[in-house]
Amino acid sequence: MTTLIEATQPVGTLLRRWRERRRLSQLDLASRAEVSARHVSFLETGRSRPTRAMLLKLSEQLEIPLRERNSLLLAGGYAPAYPEHQLSDVPMAAVADAIAAILGAHLPAPAVVVDRHWNMIDGNSAVATFTEGCALHLLEPPVNVLRLSLHPEGMAPRIVNLGQWRSHLLHRLDHQIATTGDPFLAALADELSTYPGADAPTDHDKDALVVPLRFATPGGELAFLSTTTVFGTPMDVTVAELAIETFYPADAPTAAALAEGVR
């Protein structure tokens, strides 16, 4: 199944916006794509009509997300190149099985699968460590994990190093917005910036090599390190936009508490 994306801007305008977002000159892009700067200029101004192959080549050099590559092709008068399937669709069986295996193997530590907007697609049972006590309206699908993390009725009151963790999440979000130009993410960033915590100390664990998540539970404080896993060489829009966020114990007491099933 291919998602049809309405192209509302001329293809040349879209190319120019992506080039400027990547902070490249026309000469820079031309050099990477092995064409002349004059040709890039003609494509952006509409004096030349790009071929399908040229749009795909420029998209690759500009590292345009697959969803937006389809938009670019539509704007140029071509059919989308990348399909978009649901995880429940037959062609996605191997991907769905891999996700289920990762989530299950990661127990007893928490792990979640999120889409491009940080909405939770799936998670293992240990995620309850984080969601217990959160307001029900934050747990209604689609659950946005950034909103859940930083909302004053979500995880935020129990995040010991809230200032540091908040800064870390907002920095990641800002980078994603700069990379994709996604208006939904920009609106989400505006919303999150209004939540309490901006004045919280950010110098917790100055000597840490990575930013930990320190989380208070009835059984004591837990410390986690997080990693992000994405699928390599995706050729499907959905697959390209999935990420698995896994949390690992940052110290022996946390590992022991998880093994004992303490929340």
TrEMBL record:
Pfam assignment, any one: HTH_3
Alphabetized PROSITE patterns for the sequence: HTH_CROC1
Segments forming domain HTH cro/C1-type: 15-69
Single annotated GO MF: DNA binding
Domain of life: Bacteria
Protein name: Transcriptional regulator, contains XRE-family HTH domain
Protein species of origin: Rhodococcus maanshanensis
